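Z., the sequence and structure:
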Amino acid sequence: MKQVTDFTIVAREQLGNQYFMLTLRHPSAMLNVVPGQFVEVLVEGCREVMLRRPISVHDADERTAELKLLIQIVGNGTRRLAQLGVGDKLNLVYPLGNGFGLDVEAGAKVLLVGGGAGSAPLYHLARVLASRGLEPTILLGGRSADLIPVKEPFAQFGRLLIATDDGSLGHRGLVTEHPAFAEPYDRIYTCGPTPMMRAVAQSAAQRGIDCQVSLENMMACGVGACLCCVAGTDEGNLRVCKEGPVFNAKILKKLWNL
């Protein structure tokens, strides 16, 4: 079930030069949002932007009827959203897509790997896993420290580790080069740049670890109608916005050479 609703912005936080966080409140009772799902945002007041913008849900709390969206400023649409402030309305279609599988047993060793803005949906996932008694390892990476928009808040949910290409924070190198990445895990969840996710999935396949990836194909409609987000998988052409965005990496063997 999905809804088209006007949310009210109740908080805005600037996170460096490229990112900002919006906290949105539903006018009544918010629908349940699964970690890994996304919303389609209506961008008003910008003639250059005709279609809604898909944005991952950073966090969702049905008790307070609030959503958090971590947004990277990359074009006219997100620049317009960056101009909004507390009290403004934002129209969303939500919740969309299929999220991360939460079928992990008590005591399972779980790794979350995020790259840059791709860490956004992993925050909601980490919180939900922690609420179920798990203590995930959270490995975040970026070219430099300022390109990892949210870091310390993850630490409340598990073991937080950082890797940066330039060594400005944490381990110097790629996330897959971090010593903790080589540890045994029961499941890996990942979201971020495709080359990073492919490397994570390849390593998981070699080690026999179940791996779920959140693809970031360009999505226009968000409901599976326009077909612009189709990904070629071992199970045929699948719509990332409808059958995904989260997929088990095992169906990407041919696409990613796993």
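DSSP finds four helices and 16 strands in the chain. The chain has two domains: 3-96, 110-256.

Let me know what you think.
H.
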